[in-house]
Every structure is written in structure tokens, then in C-alpha cells.
Amino acid sequence: MERQDSTPLLEVRDVTKSFGSVAAVRGCSFGLPPGEVHALVGENGAGKSTIVKMLAGVHRPDTGTLLVDGEPVEFGGPADAMDAGIAVIYQEPTLFGDLSVAENIAMGRQPRGRFGIIDRRRMRRTATELFARLGVHLDPGRPARGLSIADQQIVEIAKAIGGRARILVMDEPTAALSSVEVERLFAVVRALREEGAAVLFISHRFEEITALCDRVTIMRDGAHVSTDPLADLTVEEMVRRMVGRDLDALFPKQDVEPGAVVLEVDGLAREGVFRDVTFEVRAGEIVALAGLVGAGRSEVVQAVFGVDGRDAGTVRVNGKRVRPHSSRAAMAAGMALVPEDRRQQGLVMDLSIQRNVTLPRSGALARFGLLGGGAERREAAHWTERLRTRYGRLADPVRTLSGGNQQKVVLAKWLATAPRVLIVDEPTRGIDVGTKAEVHRLMSALAAEGVAVLMVSSELPEVLGMADRVLVMREGRLVADLPRAEATEESIMLAAMGQEVA
User: Both 45 and 76 in a single domain?
Assistant: First the structure.
């Protein structure tokens, strides 16, 4: 893969792409020289995914040019892109589960010996050599089924470089990985950079961009904003260019005087998961549950809402005890839960946007047992407008929305119930910085209206920026209750790791 000149391996030159009346990409240009990891960043809807699909051969530019090695190329489909040396590594790889790792890597170019028989020994040897180049250890003979997402991505990368790909496009590759897996993936990417490959890296996580990338291209509303060396940019400047406002606007926290206690949790326990969890949340208060992965935060809020069972403890809303093991009872008491996994737990992906928004209130909206389309549309339109949701038609399936807009639909679905207690589990995970600011604005506005908000978050800036109090969990127990004035990254992490907070 080594190159002796500085001609970009890949160049995107003034490309545009529209879908009907919507301009997804407008005059975007940037280049990837050999031996560079290049970040492509922007809000959801900025045009990043459309760029990726053009590079993958799924879409063709309406105008403008794609160049590989300085020569214009036109892709009639994904096979043409792969033949040009471009490989796309997605969040969730699509390997053949019943085939071995080596067979997946060699798919479409299996080595053959005498009489045209597949040479499986050479196939495994090639896979082993590819893993050695990448600095990882995987068994080429094991079935692909059962591999972690991280290992599946490594197999996809090995398959790409085995097919002589020189340009790798990595679309949110770390979204489902642990910190250890992320660091291993980064080591692989650095090895590819040393060999002279060009890597286009797409991520919402600024800490990953600053740790890995050499240059950054920023997009906003489908247009190219800037391309600069990472060394010339601060995170604050990147945010400002992406969303057109300063980082301070990311946490628009209103000062609210807390009112009466709304949610009381007393002695909550589930064997082997959490124990003796006691806390309260007042009207107008945002309380954050913080802690390390596995501390039991999500399990506690699931039990509070009645999705999961509990062995002991009580939950009260406005002084009235809520029946355990019943999310229906929790809803009747005025509670709402926005789950961490919005696709699996928060939405019915094949139903329309308007039907998803109105699901919890379908009985209240129905007349004589029938749900009228007009009432459903009006309700959905009100809440999607309030949350500034971007969509084509309310009748479109919710799966057609971006991740950030799906998150807004989940929020709209529960806000339509006018909750007294709003529980949000990782409210901004996997969404862009601009949508994060809108979700934070909404949470703050709800608190100002007297809603009690309980938030689970793994992002310390979010916890510090939005919470009036921070409850820290460690190994299934509450170990600290920090008021806003005393909550710092250091104090939270010390408590989460079992150290005494000064």
C-alpha cells in the first residue's frame, strides 16, 4: 500500500445529491491522501451518510466528480466501488454466520488448487497473515456466528485489505464497542495508516476524533463547511462550525427552585443486581444517576418503572405507592420511561411516525373504540413540531428517520402522556451534538414546568451540565449524593471507583 507521491487516493470534488426536493449534499469537496485518517463530522442530516453511500456505489452523484488516484470514476454499484479499492466498514457487519472466519475473508476470491478445488489450507494461512498485519489474534477456523461486533469488524477489515482495498470508510464503527475494543480497533486503523491506506472515519465522539484523526472535514445542512488539520481545531470550534453556535449552548440548563417530592424510591433491591437503593426526585429537579458500566443504573430505573421485577422496596409518586412489576401501573401514576435502546424498546420500527407518537394514548384519542386518523395526526404533529423533528410525512415508517429524530419520536411518545416523572436512560447516546442540545433544552423546559426528571447518563459533561443532583452508583449500591455545586468529574469518578470523595 505504500505510495511515493501525494496524489489523493480519493477525492470528492463538488458533488451534489438530491432526493426529490431535498438536497442531501450540496457542493461538497475534500480529499484523502495516502497514510491519513480523515474525520467526516456533522449533525444527523448533515449529509455524511449520503457521502458514504456515494463512495460505496449505492448512490451516484447528481453533479460533481469522484476521483480515485486522480482519475474520475463512476460507480454503477457496490462491486464497482470495491473494484476501485474502496471498502465500507459499517456499525453492524454482515458476515455469513455459518461460514468460518477464513471463508468470510476469502468470499468471492477463494484460492483454488488442482481440479479447481478450494484450497482451504491456503485460505486459512492468508487469513492468519492478514490478522498478523493488523496486529490481532483471531482463529481463522472458527465460525463467524458468535463473534463480538468488534471481532466482526476486524474480519471485515481483513477481508477489505485482502481484496486490496486502499480506501476504508468507517461509519460509526465504535458505537457498539467497549473502551478496550475501541482501543484495539484504533490500533488496527493506525497500522493501516502506516501501510499507506486512507481511512475516512465518521464518529459523533470528539474524544475519538482527537485521539485518531489527522484532518477533519465538517459538514452542515448538506454543505461542506471546512477541512482543516486536527491540530488547528479545538472541540469548541468544531461544534460551532457543525451547529452554528457555541459549545455553551449544548447544556441550556434553566435555574429552577425544586418543589415538593414527586418520586420516592425506598429500599429497592434485586438479588445480585442492586440493593438498598433509596432516593427522591422533586418537582422541577433533574437528578442524574452516574457510575461505571455495570453499576446497575439502567436496572434500577427499569425496576422503578416496573419493566423489571424487584425483590424489595417501594416506589411512590406524589405519596401514592405504585404497584410493582407493572409498567401499566407506573404509567397510570404519571411516570414515563425513555429507554436506552430506542430501536428495540422504544419504537415499533415498521409503524408510522404518528402511530408511534400516539401509541401510549391511543385509548384516550379513540372515539367509540376507533382511533381516527385526524386526531392521531394532530397529536403527532403537535409533539414532533415541539421537538423540531425532521421527517418527510407523519405517515412514513419511523425506521426511515435518522437516529436523532427517532430519539425525538420516543420522547414525543412519552411527553404526550403529560408525565409527572420523566425517566430518561442515556437520552443523547448515538445522536449528534445539535440534537443533543435540543434534547437538553427540552429536558430543562420540562423541569421548569414542574416535571421531576431522572436521567441515566454515562457522559460526564452531560451529567455536570444538566443535573441539579448527581447520585453515583457502584456495584449495585448508591455511594454518593452530590449537589450540583459539589459535582465534578473527579468527585463522580472517585465515588464510582470506590474512593472517598474529599
Answer: yes
Q: State which amino acid sits at residue 110.
A: Q
In this structure, the answer to whether residues 233 and 253 fall within a common structural domain is no
Residue 182 φ then ψ, to 5°: -60, -45
Q: Check whether residue 49 and residue 160 sit in a common domain.
A: yes
Rg of the chain over Cα atoms, rounded to whole angstroms, equals 25
Q: Are 329 and 322 in contact (CB under 8 A)?
A: yes
Indicate if 309 and 358 belong to the same structural domain: no
32 vs 38: CA distance, rounded Å: 7
Rounded distance between C-alpha atoms, residue 451 and residue 454, angstroms: 10
C-alpha distances in angstroms, 299 versus 47, 303, 308, 311, 315?
Answer: 36, 6, 8, 13, 14
Q: Are residues 219 and 311 in the same domain?
A: no
Domain holding 239, by residue range, is 10-95+147-244
Is the pLDDT at 2 greater than 50, yes or no?
A: no
The torsion angle over the Cα atoms of residues 307, 313, 317 and 320, rounded to 10 degrees, is: 120
Q: pLDDT tens, 407-436?
A: 788 888 888 888 999 999 988 876 667 777
CA–CA separation, 18 and 14 (whole Å): 14
CATH number at residue 277: 3.40.50.300
Same domain (yes/no): 449, 324: yes
Concatenated DSSP letters for 377-421?
HHHHHHHHHHTT---S-TTSBGGGS-HHHHHHHHHHHHHTT--SE
For residue 229, the tally of other CB atoms under 10 A from its CB is 10
Same domain for 87 and 161:
yes
Confidence label for 361 from pLDDT (cuts 50, 70 and 90): low
Query: Under a CB-based contact definition with an 8 Å cutoff, are residues 469 and 482 in contact?
Result: yes
Q: Are 26 and 223 in contact (CB under 8 A)?
A: yes
Give the residue carrying C-alpha cell 492478514. 130
Nearest to 47 by CA among 32, 59, 36: 59
